[in-house]
Write a structure and sequence with these properties.
By secondary structure, the protein is an alpha/beta fold. It is 26% helix and 28% strand. A seven-stranded mixed beta sheet has the order 5-4-1-6-10-7-11, sandwiched between helices. It is globular.
Length: 219
Amino acid sequence: MKLMAIVPVRSGSKGLVGKNLKPLAGVPLWERAVAHGLEVGAEVLVTTDSREILGQFEREGVTLLERPSELASDDTPMDPVILHALAQIEGPARIVLLQPTSPLRSRGDIEDCIALHKTGRFDLVKTVTATDAGILKYGTMHDNQFIPVSDPAYCFTNRQHLPKVMKPNGAVYVFDRDWFLKNGGFVTDSIGGVVMPAERSFDIDTEADFRRAEALISP
């Protein structure tokens, strides 16, 4: 099965204008994601509405796909973007989704996700990081009823006795092309997780995020 990396690059952004094209330590965020895909031996497909990228960028092993404007708005979910990209890929393929806004992922993180997906145990594998277990005490409200997000017993358990909780960090997703097309999106109850440390589980959304990432990545 061939290995394909999809790098989604939208030109607009409300939190930080043009963030995907913004150089981080001299290298644009989206080009870092492309490099990560090439490092693990994947062919890379960049789906973008950026005229700058579409008109000027060329690199061996990288294909550019023009994204329709209706798939490039602030509120466009990722599912249809990936479905549009997968329609351009022929035959069976293992897909690695690499978002430009997670620049601190490592080659090892990607390879660990690929290896776990290859076991066949999970439909989808993604990177995660530890978070506050206190969320297990939370719930939603419906018609004045408190509905726990998990086991009701956790609402009355001391924090130090709660199980560890992980959250997605958006750095790496791995799945099978045909599975995604048949499934119609990411949602599944068969998800494998690869743990990344908090110091590299970094998502850029604002100027402050960008400056912090630059400080972490610069020698």
